[in-house]
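SAMPLE LOG
Freezer: B-3
Tube label: C17
Construct: single chain, 407 aa
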Amino acid sequence: MAEHAEHAAYPVGLRLSGRRVVVLGGGQVAQRRLPSLVAAGADVLLISPSAKPSVEAMADTGEIRWERRRYAPGDLAEAWYALISTDDPEANTAASQEAEDRRVWCVRSDDAEAATAWTPATGRSEGVTVAVLTGRDPRRSAAVRDAIVEGLRDGTLAAPHHRARATGVALVGGGPGDPDLITVRGRRLLAEADVVIADRLGPRDLLAELPPHVEVIDAAKIPYGRFMAQEAINNALIEHARAGKSVVRLKGGDPYVFGRGMEELQALAEAGIPCTVVPGISSSISVPSAAGIPVTHRGVAQEFTVVSGHVAPDDERSTVDWPALARLRGTVVVLMGVENSGAIAATLIAHGRGADTPVAVVQEGTTAAQRRVDATLATLGETVRAEGVRPPAVIVIGDVVAVNPAH
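STRUCTURE (predicted):
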């Protein structure tokens, strides 16, 4: 191999489905490489006296076959590809020579120069596989791979489709407000959109990154009045999708957590419009976390309940069982409850929750404007008024509010 070292490696994609791949050694290298080989559909035979627990689990579930022994001559018979990663240099050399004799492409973790194949740094983004080789600098390979994949995922690296894209609607949960907390898939779909219909509570900073041709519609300003707004949004989604556009409905938090996402999905289904739902990080857990509050904590809270406070407890439209909620000992997270915070606190106290229960109100959670205001159930309504707390804000009720990171 030494006389060929100056030549660049020839990149190729191996189609290993149903073909034998032999892996020698069940350590860290096998732990990292086996999942990709299994995903490629390879018929994997592992030969090793021992293996990492995660590798052993793959054998237990039937994803790979495992022979618990050391390498022996002839093990590479009928193999198409071999990965040699044992801690025995003599066995590695012997197996490498067998691969050379049998014309089996062979990767060696201990001596890349003695191998006939190198494993590139690979990454995937929506059907695209990126493989990077930089010879003897695997860290640089990984860095280049990461930069390309990240660019494809967030849309900063242009990779236009040359085949027709499927039109339709994506209901994308944008997370609690910080643009970095949208999912990778949500950000990619946003980058590919022709039309974006955005909520006021969605990650607004992401809209500035959209190309000039993308039409951005503020859902809060769609006409027809407050009680017709949802129907108007549904109609806008249908209208733009029927015009052959790729539409993203960008919502705050998760589409199905007080986001009326199912109503929009039902309207699209009735209209025969294909729809993809992309989950988002709900503010019910992310905002408390950003403010240093765990919604559960060992010995303090074994459950948490998320409720909407947009209607008062005594309102006939409320479907929350407030008396039952007051009897729970865990954490209560109230969304959209700023206006009714005093009435909510009074109701919980009236039904048995302690007046001295710690409460935190986190306004504009995860954004640069985030602030936290602490109170008790007895003082919640007064504190919200005195501090001028405004929506959006998350109210966290329970002993977890008093948990100190130092303990």
